[in-house]
Design goal:
This protein has 152 residues and is mainly alpha-helical. It has one domain. Helix content is 72%, strand content 8%. The chain has a two-stranded antiparallel ribbon. The longest helix has 32 residues. It is elongated.
Length: 152
């Protein structure tokens, strides 16, 4: 026996935007916390900006795996497309900066330059995808799911 479920166009749009929106939100939060930490910290607390800014990025990095996986098998291929590229972009930027950040921090811009680079590479591109997803012609999707009744 099978049941039919309706996945609305609004739900598809929300799913297509979700990874990008959360990636932008956590990146902006972390960069803001870094800036606040720079304003508050003195020579004795030089680690404070990084200590304040890294937890949101680390939490989202872990949570993003679950968000990515939950959308990866969406019935709408366009939703999968947006999710796939949002993941590629985020993991590429975070992974590259993880490897290069210590070397980049020795440049005159310091750690602020590393955060600026992350903001400039991730946020505009992700927001463009959010905007582009809003321009798609989303349709309601009817999905069938097999149900098995257990014999008593």
């Amino acid at each position: 026996m099978s049941e039919k479920f309706l996945i609305t166009a609004a739900s598809c749009l929300r799913s297509a935007r979700l990874f990008n929106l959360l990636a932008v939100a956590t990146t902006l939060l972390s960069a803001s916390l870094f800036g606040i930490g720079n304003l508050v910290a003195d020579k004795k607390l030089a680690f404070l900006p990084m200590a304040m800014s890294l937890p949101p990025i680390m939490i989202w990095l872990a949570a993003s795996i679950f968000v990515y996986a939950s959308i990866a098998h969406h019935p709408d291929l366009t939703v999968r497309h947006y999710n796939k590229w949002a993941g590629y972009r985020y993991y590429a930027v975070v992974g590259t900066l993880t490897v290069l950040s210590n070397d980049l921090a020795h440049l005159p811009t310091g750690w602020a330059g590393v955060w600026g680079l992350m903001l400039l590479t991730l946020v505009p591109w992700a927001l463009y995808d959010v905007w582009k997803a809003g321009k798609e012609n989303w349709q309601d999707i009817e999905v069938e799911r097999e149900t098995h009744k257990e014999a008593h």
